[in-house]
Structure formats: C-alpha cells, structure tokens
Amino acid sequence: MRYEVVRQDDPVLRERLKEPARLRRRFGYRRLHVVLRRKGHEVNHKRPFRIYREEWLHVRRRGGRKRDIGARAPMVLPLMLNQRWSLDFVSDQLTDGRRFRVVTVVDDCTRECLALISAPASQAPGWCAN
Predict the structure, then answer these.
(1) For site-directed labelling of 81, which of 5, 21, 95, 102 has its Cα 20 to 30 A away?
(2) What is the DSSP string of the chain?
(3) Using an 8 Å Cβ cutoff, are 85 and 108 in contact?
C-alpha cells in the first residue's frame, strides 16, 4: 500500500494566476504569488509554482544580441603605394611623469610609417584628445 496524492484542482486559483501572467509576461511565479496574496488568496508558494509549470507560464526569454547575417567579405589587400593608409593614436609617459600622444600614419601596402605627429597631452588638439 502506498499513499496516493489527492491534489485539489482549484480552477479559480488557476484563472487568477493566468490573468496577471498574461498581462505581465516578465513576472515569474514568485512575483505572481505576491500578486495572488495581495488579491486575498492565502496559498502556499508551492501551489502557484505547480500551476505555473502545468500551464507553461514560463518567463519569456529576451532576444539575444543581433548578429550579422551572411559571411563578411575579406578586406582587400592594397596592391599599390598610397592606396590605403591607416591612422592610430599612441600615448605614453616620460620618466618625469609628463604624458604625450602621437598620431601615426602608415601606408598599408609598404607598411611604411608616413608621419608621426606628437604633442603633449595637455596641448593636444581636440581630435587627439580622449
């Protein structure tokens, strides 16, 4: 002989739980339990959880990060001089604590440094400031 569980199927409680779950899809069973208690239903937290699972009222997952669709075209390598240049900002600090910034201009075909423009960080132009 074994004990057989006799569960109370409470359709009123079931409808009272489904109503706010439809309105507020981001509410889990714990917050819905609080809503039920505020409406006057004195129930244990386990019964709303059981009904919540039986009715498939799970919290909807939010959409993930949007990813790029399709394959990206590889970057075309430059074949001639001055076809493409790259800029980069570099900063460093001297031994006495003064900071300075340098803008580097590099030709992508020959990988030759075309220009180095330096300025103290305090006197750097607006396009060179952080």
Answers:
(1) 102
(2) ----------HHHHHHHHHHHHH-TT--HHHHHHHHHHTT----THHHHHHHHHTT-PPPPPP------SPPPPPPPP-STTS-EEEEEEEEE-TTS-EEEEEEEEETTT--EEEEEEEETTT--GGG--
(3) yes
Q: What does the alpha-carbon distance between residue 18 and residue 69 come to, in Å, rounded to a whole number?
A: 37
Q: Which of 118, 112, 117, 116 is nearest to 82 (CA)?
A: 112
Does residue 57 contact residue 30 with C-beta atoms inside 8 Å?
no
Whole-angstrom Cα Rg for the chain: 33
Other beta carbons within 10 angstroms of residue 124's beta carbon come to 20
Token pair in block for residue 127: 């396009």
d(CA 128, CA 130): 7
* Span 33-79, pLDDT tens digits: 898 889 888 888 888 888 888 888 877 777 788 877 777 788 888 99
For range 9-33, the mean pLDDT: 84
